[in-house]
């Protein structure tokens, strides 16, 4: 077969679930087969499947489909393919795949499957389809060898990139690739390997592109340039839902290098956030510096919007007033008879906890490089949701989605910020006005002022205890700025979605229980922030358990274990369900207590605190050993125990847990977004002081529970229990109970 | 530290570019460059937009995060606050210039310890570590903690280990 024919016949694996739920992997006759990125095709490279290319010298190229935002999918997902393909990881080169839109049976689809990075779903999704993709590629090679040797395929086996004959003869994958690529896959599912025989999954593997990171060669979204593109930097309206009354751009246009100034509209007050977040003026220039100076020279007159009086202090007053009234609210869950429980209670404990808005503050700010042509578009941007970007570009340009090419460079962090594509919409609108390709750059100040913030809220907790000081009744009422407000696609969701989970701990474990939600009006755009609702409410729940334990002089670990009860699975309808396993939570908690030496009497002024939480199918516990040196909080030890089922890459999981723990500490100690006079007050990192090395624990002791259960992800499991464990440790050492985040300013105020 | 202005108020342009009579000569990663544009352009944007040396990253623009750290005459400097004219004729090293025939020990140690998560801040962290190790060949914990570069992913423990490893690798090379 000559090169051209093989190219034309190159077909992609198609993924789809049958009605019965069985996964089908097959070749599809695609009219759009030319979508192979040209740079991937060398003379010696054979594209075997959508994910696997093989070189004649038997080196293997595996495509990574996920959006790499620091969670490690550029390594962990190809590992699953390599495992099933049966190749040596040392001979694998990983390349990032582009966004794989294609129409399948007339409907929007993706030739690579799911490329979304959110909700820690990459690993569990890949566990279902990418292992099979690897097995399919191996199957083709085995069939090709069977044909070459005129033997039955089931007499052959594979090892380290070779098909091996029963008599010991070998053929390398490189030698078989060409004939294998011409074969059709069967219609039935191809079996995957027995996990007991895994050689790669479960072994520590370093980042596939680690070398290019440390040499400065790796290209993030911000690093892409395009000939003829102008740099765009925007001045956005600083007032929530404010508008532009007038603009004098004459001085800006005088700056050498500035080419144009254009204005784009934000959403009208109350409209869904599916385009730009705010009205803004874009300065277009030859380079970033000229654009920055042009922006400085703009003289706009802004008109304040409907939220001009909004302030964080007023939001807190409103939230507390709603909780004081006790009437109204949206019922999230109600079990048993809390009223009766209150009447019979031996003790009642109550406390309120306040959590602030949070910004994502990805180290690489948002941005996008876009080229619009009559016959198509190119987008290069750091993102988490390329599907959303594709839809937005299509909506704003009228281009059909198969004409929109999207490349997925490595992202300088995500944390949920890039689930939104407001920056893509901005770039498209500017490019349309400019008639030129646009490289939209966000400055850090833009990022703090125009984010989709983690909601603000106040949690009112109440527990009733029986004669034996067991928790008999539980009330969790939360007044918060609803996550669903103006959120595209969430119009039909209940207002508590993203703030309270009906089945979260201790639901199902306490007989008399209520969860009630009270929406608080705010003009602040809201979004998903790493382990969103879990970081939002675990601080309250897990701090409160400690308060109960202290109140009735019980051991905080023992009380949690008693509430969890016998090991069993109870229903969990939220993301991460369908069940919550009390036994797995208890195991994680017990190991964490053991590692921090919970039972040890300390006489050195140090104290410990602990907390646990269930996030998106993963079970995590944290414990910290702290002391006060004068007014300085010292974190001596940090323990993180996690059970995410089978571990794909322990080195990567450890990194996520270590990073999640430090992100959790950084956020709990110092971070919060506040609003005053309808404007966000934080401008740059000095106002939003991420933890520095000097204040971070030297080490995070990560303990991973060995498991053969199907894996869940790891990106978001390492954070929710951090803030309460730290607050509990601070209480243990200072007797000061912090009920408001961030902790450190509150601690300094109360000491 | 430069505080960003209130974006609602028009800012006064204080740095109108002046005409340049002769181009500035720059030495970046051992190669000469001539710049005849705005001499006040920060080194960061010159490296990125003009030379397309994009390993040096933008993070805050006010010298707070360290993502843009480069070496000027071997010492760590924030490229976002360094006007090109201030570094004319001085030896500038960026992340791209660190590697010789082999990886720099710090780069090697970074790979061994699998430090990077998103990796965006790591070029700056590495440059800061190179600067530190040039001053302190056996850095203490406190020396390492003096690096104030921000990492949003929380890779600090692995950065610590990597710096200690780089110190050991460098010592091995010398002996």
Q: Would you count the extended β strands of chain B for me? A: 5
User: Mean pLDDT score of chain B, rounded?
Assistant: 90
The general outline of chain A is: globular
Largest interface: A-B, 82 and 72 residues
For the biggest sheet of chain B, the summary is: 5 strands, mixed
What portion of residues of chain A belong to β-strands? 15-25%
Sequence of strands across the biggest β-sheet of chain A: 14-15-12-22-19-20-21
Name the beta content range of chain B: 5-15%
What distance separates the N and C termini of chain A? 79 Å
* Number of helices, counting only DSSP H or I runs of 4 residues or more of chain B: 5
The tally of helices of chain A reads 18
Share in helix of chain B: 25-40%
Give the number of DSSP strands of chain A. Answer: 33
Q: Taking all residues together, what is the mean pLDDT of chain A?
A: 93
Distance between the termini of chain B: 42 Å
H/E element order of chain B: EEHEEEHHHH
Q: How large, in whole angstroms, is the Cα Rg of chain A?
A: 28 Å
